[in-house]
Design brief:
Layout: H1 22-39, H2 51-61, H3 66-79, H4 83-87, H5 91-98, H6 105-120, H7 129-133, H8 140-149, H9 160-170, H10 183-192, H11 198-211, H12 230-236
Helix pairs in contact: 1-11, 2-3, 2-8, 5-6, 9-11
Length: 239
């Protein structure tokens, strides 16, 4: 069924994390992409395909509100337009620019990343998950973000907000203390990736988790997937 009328149950058929049904996956994908076209946030870094500029944005976005990043990102990119400029920077200047974001260690991390890129990769950002994950402070999420948004690879992104969305809609349950580190969740997310429009799909999940499917007081009345969402059905009934 579609996204109107009687609810469609899209829970996993077992207590473990399984594959989504094709019909539920398709309905969810289309709903997310349609929602993003109407409600997506137009941040500057989303118009970038330069791997360096994407990587800088993702480092800034770690544990940080995106609107705060948007206030300083243009200034930062103008001051440090490439890896070489960033590698030559002074940590104290970086701290001053990044002060409003918190997490002081981020300044040294950015410089260390730039220095490694300058000395080992000729100033270029690598294009494989293995090499990206070898950079200081870069894990699977940031590596996949660069691969998806800069190199157009069809790979998923999983953070706490995306996990919450998948858990609620599909009744997923992870055995891990930190579900976003559960490889089975990542495998599920990989199966959920649409063949086309995967960049917008990843952005849609991020924005939907921030604006609609929040951890507290989710806006289920505004949710475009409420008719296939098991959490919504459990909380508010089938009507």
């Amino acid at each position: 069924m579609g996204l109107a009328g009687k609810p469609v149950h899209c829970a996993s058929q077992s207590k473990h994390i399984g594959s989504p049904s094709k019909s539920c996956a398709k309905a969810f994908q289309l709903a997310m992409l349609d929602w993003y076209e109407k409600n997506g946030r137009g941040y500057l870094w989303r118009s970038q395909i330069d791997p360096y500029k994407v990587l800088v944005a993702e480092i800034m976005l770690q544990q940080t509100n995106a609107d705060r990043v948007a206030q300083i990102y243009p200034q930062f990119i103008q001051r440090f337009p490439d890896t070489i400029a960033l590698a030559r920077s002074e940590v104290e200047e970086l701290k001053l620019i990044l002060k409003s974001l918190g997490l002081d260690y981020r300044a040294a991390r950015l410089k260390n990343i730039a220095q490694k890129l300058a000395t080992e990769y000729g100033g270029e950002v690598p294009s494989t998950e293995e090499t990206l994950s070898a950079l200081p402070g870069v894990g699977l999420y940031i590596a996949n973000a660069v691969l998806c948004f800069a190199y157009s690879n069809r790979v998923p992104l999983i953070d706490i907000n995306v996990v919450r969305l998948y858990e609620r809609v599909f009744s997923l349950r992870s055995d891990k203390k930190r579900a976003r580190e559960d490889l089975k969740i990542w495998e599920f997310a990989a199966e959920m990736m649409p063949v086309t429009g995967f960049k917008k799909y990843n952005w849609a999940l991020i924005d939907f988790g921030a604006k609609i499917c929040m951890s507290k007081n989710p806006r289920c009345d505004k949710c475009t997937v409420r008719f296939i969402c098991n959490y919504s059905s459990d909380q508010y009934g089938s009507n």
